Amino acid sequence: MPELPEVETVANGVNARVRGRRIEQVWTSGKPQTFKSSPAKIAGTLTGARIERVRRVGKTIVMDLRGAEDRPAQFLVHLGMTGRLLVAQPEIPWPTHTHAVLSLSDGREVRFVDPRRFGRLSVLTGPSGYQGPGTEPTTVLAEEFAQLFKGRRLAIKAALLNQSILHGVGNIYADESLFRAGIRPRRQAGRLSREQLARLHAALQEVLAEAIRLGGSSVSDYVDADGVRGFFQLQHKVYSRAGQPCRECAAVLKKITVGGRTTVYCPRCQQ
Prior knowledge:
Layout: H1 4-18, E1 23-28, H2 39-46, E2 50-57, E3 60-66, E4 72-78, E5 84-88, E6 98-104, E7 109-113, E8 120-125, H3 142-148, H4 156-161, H5 171-181, H6 194-213, E9 254-258, E10 261-265
Antiparallel strand pairs: 1-6, 2-3, 3-4, 4-8, 5-7, 6-7, 9-10
Helix pairs in contact: 1-6, 3-6, 5-6
C-alpha cells in the first residue's frame, strides 16, 4: 500500500500539472467498493469546479476545489493497495481498471486506476475540510512526538502504524526508521527514553524526507502521476530483507510479526 512518501509524490506531481484548471466533465465506472460518496455526488461536486491545489493529508490525496458560487469542496482519493492517480492526454487509451476520469479545461484528463478496488473516492463540501486521523509526522516537533507515545503499552512498531497517532507512516517507513534509530520494533512505546524517542523522531523525518526526494518506494504497483516508479526501495536497510546480512554490521536480519504486520530488524544494530 502506498505510504506517506508515495502519496506525497503523487499529490505533488498531480498538483504541478492540474492546479488552476477547471473540471469540465466527470466519468465514473460505478464499480462497487470504489466509491465512499455516490458517483452522482462526486460528479455533481466536481463538474465545473476549479482545482485550487492538490496535496497530501496522511495517506489521502486531497484535491481542494472551488465550485459554483465560490463554494469550497474537496475530492478525496485514497489509493488503497493498487490505486494510481495519473494525468494523461485524452488520446492515450484508458488503462484497464480505470474507475474515474476528470476531463480538464486544457484537454487533459486525471484518471484513477485501481485493479483491486481497495482505493476509495469521496467528496466533502464546506469550509472545514479533511484534517486526517492523526498527527502529521513530517512537521511534528520532537517534544510533541514524544508526548504521542507517553504511557502507551503497545509495541513501538505498532504505535508508528497507528494512524490515529501518526497518520501516513506504514510498514516500510516504520521498519526503516526504527533501524536508523537503533530501536527494536517490539520495545514498549511508553517505556522508551526521551533520548530514544528523540532519535526515532529524527530518523523518521530523515527517512520520509529522503523517500519523498527519491519519489517513494516502488515495491509493488506504485508509480507517480506520470506512471514512473520511485527509487527509495534501493535504499532500504531492513524492509523485505529478512535472512539477508545487515548492511551495517553483517548480522542476519530477523523477521517477526508485530501488530499483525511482517517486521524486519537487525538483532545487533537495534536494541
